[in-house]
């Protein structure tokens, strides 16, 4: 994992190669280096880190969504990169608002992103533009809403399991 100085050097190289506004911040916390990236630049930043960085990050290990409600921009997408040569990990994070949750797909860079982008779309509603087959992956196609959003209504009917309650002592009395 790059230390704070190494992370700043990565951010500087990305800014010089792409755009100084591509990287919006860096965070080193609990031995995890995170590069915060503008949503419009995420594809280009990941392409740079994979193909043009002097210390390349060749593998996308994970892509996942986060709902930061009540903060805005509300939705985060985290990309976990790995360098097997250095045995280092780097997190790249971007955030999009609830009104227009769109990001460019990175399936063309990392084929492993295919199902992971579909899952983030299915559960959070983030649209990955340019994805070859963006549709629900776990929920039914006609399902309304996105169940991992923090404002998704919790509900259903409570289920009482009373068929064997007489067999166990009531420890809470």
The mean pLDDT is 91
The fraction of residues in strands falls at 25-35%
Q: State Rg.
A: 20 Å
Shape, principal axes of CA atoms: globular
- How are the strands of the largest sheet arranged? 1-2-5-4-3
Largest sheet: 5 strands, mixed
Low-confidence stretches: none
Structural class: alpha/beta
- SSE order, one letter for each helix or strand: HEEHEEEEHE
Q: Helical region count?
A: 3
Number of DSSP strand runs: 7
Distance between the termini: 51 Å
Can you give the helix content as a percent range?
10-25%
What does this structure look like?
There is one protein chain. The model has no long low-confidence stretch (mean pLDDT about 90). Helix content is about 20%, strand content about 25%. About 25% of the residues are buried. The chain contains 3 helices and 7 strands; from the N terminus they run αββαββββαβ. It is α/β, with parallel strands linked by helices. The longest helix is centred in the first third of the chain and has 14 residues, at about 5-15. The strands form 2 sheets. The chain has a 5-stranded mixed beta sheet.
